[in-house]
């Protein structure tokens, strides 16, 4: 457990130690807990392809309208503006404002704006499907999933559950679009 001050929550102190970067916590398959910060804004993990024949019980996609494709990030002493023109031309402009006291340069603010837009656009398209289990699969792993038209969708695992019975293991996955 990380604590910096008496009475401070561990997640708050971890956030402070990592200078306000995004920290993602997950419980791993072996019982340990992982805390990850993504300094470059890109998720890490395995690359696995799930073919149409490997999937079970359908595939669903949900599109959400609550996304940000134009954001202003206000740091400690400076601010920057980021946007995604491709998304704005198709879906219209959705503005967001982010304040982060740990950002001290224009480059850090621009990187954070890109992260916010990437996460928001990815979360605006969520995928659900099941397949025979991959035991080492974890949240934030990348998957390529083929649909029945043999189109491939690239997704990032948000959450998963593994069901075991005497004859097989099945994995249910909730994922977001990889941008």
Low-pLDDT regions: none
Mean pLDDT over all positions: 76
Report the end-to-end length measured between terminal Cα atoms.
33 Å
Q: From N to C, what is the helix and strand string?
A: HEEEEEEHEHEEEE
The proportion of residues in beta strands is 35-45%
Helix content: 10-25%
Overall geometry comes to flat
Number of E-type strands: 11
Largest sheet composition:
6 strands, mixed
* Strand order, sheet with most strands: 3-9-10-11-8-4
Output the radius of gyration: 19 Å
Number of helical segments with 4 or more residues: 3
- SSE class: alpha+beta
What does this structure look like?
The protein has 179 residues and is of the alpha+beta class. It is built from three helices and eleven strands; from the N terminus they run αββββββαβαββββ. It has helices spanning 10-17, 85-91, 106-123; strands spanning 23-27, 33-37, 47-50, 55-63, 70-74, 79-83, 95-99, 125-132, 142-146, 152-164, 169-177. The strands form three sheets. Strands 3-9-10-11-8-4 form a six-stranded mixed beta sheet. A hairpin with a 4-residue loop joins strand 5 and strand 6 (79-83). The longest helix has 18 residues, at 106-123. It is flat, with a radius of gyration of 19 Å. It starts with 9 loop residues before the first helix and ends with a strand.
């Amino acid at each position: 457990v990380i604590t910096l001050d008496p009475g401070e929550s561990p997640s708050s102190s971890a956030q402070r130690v990592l200078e306000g970067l995004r920290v993602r916590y997950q419980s791993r398959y072996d019982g340990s807990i992982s805390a990850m910060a993504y300094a470059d804004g890109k998720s890490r993990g395995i690359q696995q392809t799930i073919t149409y024949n490997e999937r079970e019980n359908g595939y669903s996609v949900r599109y959400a309208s609550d996304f940000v494709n134009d954001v202003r990030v206000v740091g400690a002493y400076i601010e920057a503006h980021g946007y995604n023109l491709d998304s704005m031309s198709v879906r219209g402009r959705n503005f967001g404002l982010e304040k982060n006291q740990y950002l001290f340069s224009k480059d850090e603010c621009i990187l954070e704006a890109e992260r916010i837009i990437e996460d928001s656009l990815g979360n605006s398209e969520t995928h659900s499907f099941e397949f025979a289990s991959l035991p080492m699969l974890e949240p934030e792993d990348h998957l390529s999933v083929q649909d029945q038209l043999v189109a491939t969708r690239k997704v990032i695992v948000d959450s998963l559950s593994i069901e075991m019975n005497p004859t097989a293991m099945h994995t249910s996955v909730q994922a977001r679009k990889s941008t």
